[in-house]
Amino acid sequence: LKMSWFWFYLPLRLLMAACLCHSIKDPTTSSQQSFKTDLFNFYHSLILADGKETTVHLLKDIPRRYYFVLEEGRALAPFTITVTPCDVPIEWSILVHKASTSFLGKAARGDHDTQEVSKSQKASSMVSTIFNYKGNSVETYMGMSSHSALYMLEFLSTERDTHITVYLTTDTTSGHLYPELPMDPRIDVIGIGHTTVTLTWKHSPSVLQHRENIQYCLLVNEKHNYKSLCAAETAIRSSGMKLPPTLALSLSPYLLEPQQVMILSNSELSIINRVSSGEVRQICMGTKNTYTVPSLSPSTQYYFDVFVVNLLTNASAAYTGTFARTLEEPEPKVTELKDGKVIQVVLDGKKQKFHSLQYQARHKKIQFTFQLCRGQVRVHITKNGKTVASENISGLRYFSLKGKLLDTYLVQLRSTEANSSVKVQVSPHFHKPLFPLLPESLKIKSFSKLRTCNSVTIAWLGTQEESKYCVYKKKIEEDQVWMELRSADRCSGPESRHKSEKVLCKYFYDINPQRAVTTETIKGLDAGTLYLFDVYLFGPSGIPVRYHSKVVKTRKRC
């Protein structure tokens, strides 16, 4: 019989045979009794597909059974079964039921008598367990099958509901669903830095044979190693977020969740999943077998897993995971602060992420002033080793602190974004302020209804202190807006601007802060054009503060 016909008739044959077996009172072992019950309830079970990966969902403490029989006409047939747990350890076993094919055929046709069935049952029916395993590793069983044997796979999870994948194949000539691992599947750590770890591993034979359909994917996390790709995906999902269907096929931004960031550069795909236990980073790097993992945290232990993935079947095989601890961050250089002196600190976010400033108080009341020039910076201030202030700064920020003479203050600056910079000043509380008095908001407002083809009207807040305000304009293109706003140095003054960009300078103030508002109409503009407007505020010391830039487009038609 061909396999397709056998699958069609097998349930009917087994049901009838089970009914006959059930009516016979022969003494049998408990395993034989259990197996007959399984046959009787065959319609509750499933035939395991040959040559296809099957996902099996397991409920806690409820066994799940699958059956398979190889096609007739072959005395011995090789087969392999691969089971991949995707979460907790499971128990699974293979049982074989050796029964005469002619007996099953007669039972299905009904040409038998009770005595014949009894003899046949005694002589030709036997149940035995040929393999069992308990754990969460990927396990493969390889065996030879007789055409007269019925196989049952039983799966059980005793910890919680879970799922697994099962792959049965009898075709040993047309290649493998799963990519092959090398003889030595270990991952070697060949370099460790403060924020990087360099890994290498031996090539999979599948990469050498089918380079265009195979790629390596790396998983980085701070928790533990994973023995399979589906185990890693399950762990990420259980942290309260959805994951793209697989690591290898997550190439489209629309598959990502808000907790995920995708980075594609130099033919490498990185997906960062922000979960409760930290970041889980996934990198697919094609067929390169050496990789330097960037942007790690200093003095942190990371776990690394490499998977070789078949892009056609989406099946994967796991190398033996490894771990490494990044080096401790070197002590940052400490700069002494002097009363009234302004210093500018540049943090590139790579080599220079931290900077420390030290100040020994010569007065009981002091004031720290921070002006964020670019990027994002976090300030942490300690007094004699105890934290007195810690926050991300924005714009201009003052910290007024009280203490004793000769108290030691340590200011730690940390960049949370590449290419950040900040100006810092410390002074006695009574010292003449270096920066001007600031309004409640540094935003520039534009009036849409007052826009024309050659003019726009803007407004900004002033203060109770008479100050000088200078307005500058710059013509920009649509695709320059984001970069202009992103890269603007808020500490730079008008001296960095071209003379042709200057519009006007004016003085004003109002004792009532509610009325300290001024407007200005800028004329002589081009129709349908984008302009970037900046306002600079100058205080008594002459140091400017730049308002937030405003982009306005003139009307195209009037």
Automatic annotation (TrEMBL):
Gene Ontology CC entries for this record: extracellular region
SUPFAM superfamilies given in the database record: Fibronectin type III (SSF49265)
Q: Where in the cell is it found?
A: Secreted
In UniProt terms, what function does this protein have? Secretory protein that plays a role in various cellular processes. Acts as a chemorepellent acting on gonadotropin-releasing hormone (GnRH) expressing neurons regulating their migration to the hypothalamus. Also promotes neuron migration, growth and survival as well as neurite outgrowth and is involved in the development of the olfactory system. May also act through the regulation of growth factors activity and downstream signaling. Also regulates extracellular matrix assembly and cell adhesiveness.
A Pfam family the protein falls into: NDNF_N
Q: Which UniProt keywords apply?
A: Glycoprotein, Neurogenesis, Repeat, Secreted, Signal
Main location as per UniProt: secreted
A GO BP annotation = nervous system development
Q: By what name is this protein known?
A: Protein NDNF
Superkingdom, natural source:
Eukaryota
Signal peptide positions are 1-17
- According to the entry, every stretch annotated as the Fibronectin type-III domain falls at 179-316, 436-544
List the Gene Ontology MF annotations in alphabetical order. Answer: heparin binding
